[in-house]
Amino acid sequence: xxxxxxxxxxxxxxxxxxxxxxxxxxxxxxxxxxxxxxxxxxxxxxxxxxxxxxxxxxxxxxxxxxxxxxxxxxxxxxxxxxxxxxxxxxxxxxxxxxxxxxxxxxxxxxxxxxxxxxxxxxxxxxxxxxxxxxxxxxxxxxxxxxxxxxxxxxxxxxxxxxxxxxxxxxxxxxxxxxxxxxxxxxxxxxxxxxxxxxxxxxxxxxxxxxxxxxxxxxxxxxxxxxxxxxxxxxxxxxxxxxxxxxxxxxxxxxxxxxxxxxxxxxxxxxxxxxxxxxxxxxxxxxxxxxxxxxxxxxxxxxxxxxxxxxxxxxxxxxxxxxxxxxxxxxx
Length: 331
Ligand SMILES: O=C(O)CCC(=O)C(=O)O
Ligand SMILES: [Fe+2]
Description:
It is built from six helices and 14 strands. The chain has 331 residues and is an alpha+beta fold. The strands form three sheets. Strands 1, 2, 3, 4, 6, 11, 13 and 14 form an eight-stranded mixed sheet that branches. The chain has a four-stranded antiparallel sheet with strand order 5-12-7-10, with helices on one face. A two-stranded antiparallel sheet has the order 8-9. The chain binds 2-oxoglutaric acid (AKG) and fe (ii) ion.
């Protein structure tokens, strides 16, 4: 893995100030970031009222890199309080930053929540949790979180993923690898664009593993979209061993290429990593959790971007293992 840098998109001081004020205003009105229809409507109204320069700076990912780091927002380390000891304990911790992310997500598209994940919240807390150290979920720590497409098992998955950093004293890196940086043979692309293997729901979803409403659908790993390749990749939840040897070898070469082009992004407080979930897989390096209130703390939001044509049309028929994606704003 390289320590190559991710592109940075600066948010100017006036823009950062405008966003902060908008989020504080909503937080004052509602006293929580728990999303009611009223709060979501208020977020939509507030996002629509942001100035044109800010809205321009907050446009979605628009390069083949498939990611950027938004820099310019501030986090007050004292004001946010201690890092919660797991998402379930987070409640309204640093709620104003939830609202900042909701505003960002609403400018870029439509925020997405899952009934079966983190109590249906639109903004997730990514913190290490005791007892979950070795999982392949955001709550883990001591293991490498393998590169993955977010919510790869589901046809309603995000187009954009936002990871906003509140605290990261040990500079623990998120990893990101873009499919359009990878060099692949035409023969491998031909194999991997065939739907052969399913992607099973990950352990962050309560209930999805017990789904008995149909066979796991086989899905392609790669897709040729109009403007280039996209991917749907989650090796930790893909039964790769079931594939014929030639397909397995191609899948391995893809994994190796993604590792080769991967960059490490050590987010600093206030920075928001925005990845295009169709172009870039992300993961995280292993670390030792502190469990003393000073642990790494990210806020995560998922975004649908209406009208994107980055995925095979056949996805529309998938059952999604009974998991319901909920969009914040009516289309
Ligand atoms: O902790 C990180 O940097 C990324 C974790 C992750 O995969 C996620 O939050 O979706
Ligand atoms: Fe993830």
